[in-house]
Task: structure prediction
Amino acid sequence: MAETRVHPSSIVSPAARIGQGVTVGPFCQVGDDVELGNGVELVSHVAVAGRTVIGADTKIYPFASIGHQPQDLKYGGEPSRLIIGQRTVIREGATINPGTQGGGMETRIGDDCLLMSSSHVAHDCQVGNHVIIASFSGVAGHCVVGDYAIMGGQSGVHQFVRIGAHAFIGAHSLVDADVIPYGMAVGNRAKLAGLNLVGLKRRNFDREAIHQLRAAYRMIFASEGTLRERVEDAARLFEGAPLVQDVVAFVGKSSDRALCLPRNGSSEG
Result:
């Protein structure tokens, strides 16, 4: 393994757990309860505090604030945690907060994510793998963001909202309702604008699976009957279609927020 290097201008607590091959650049601060996995790089001016674990080969750019006290007035100093996965890239000025007593005590960021400059992930969020959060975008407390979801620049997500896997949030959008897996949401307040077909094709999803998903989307968001009835019909008709079943399971799961729907009842996929 490569040698661990700490710039002499940085302050690293002797109690911090530092892996092999770690690089701590100039003017960084690493607190007592921090764990940096093998190959982590703090470029410069990075402040890591609290009970924070950063996975191997993650790279954090200048002026990021990682693991400091949640921006929640109910926080009472409880020993909550922040877990960041492997190979994640956190760009300049990004902020990520640990959990709280009211939200499970843990914020988690998955593997291979990209948090662009000045993005924010609040307390108690659960962010999956391969997620991209673009510059000046924020995810409020208690949100769940599925694998491969993408948030466009200057977008925001209301607390307790769920963003499904492979969903796409358009730039400048404010999302205050749950977005289905593979969905695309745009606007203030965001509405479904169809499926993330570009993302599905880029990730080499099977053509037939995409056709099934489009047909199920039109069925679920049609105007006839109730949403529950339409979801049940889609579950039966597309029993062997895993992408459709992902959407069915997501809609059927209990949530604190409403479901993001198409504007004007449009069901175009």
User: Anything to note?
Assistant: The two ends are 49 Å apart (CA to CA). The chain has a mean pLDDT of 96. The chain has four helices and 28 strands.
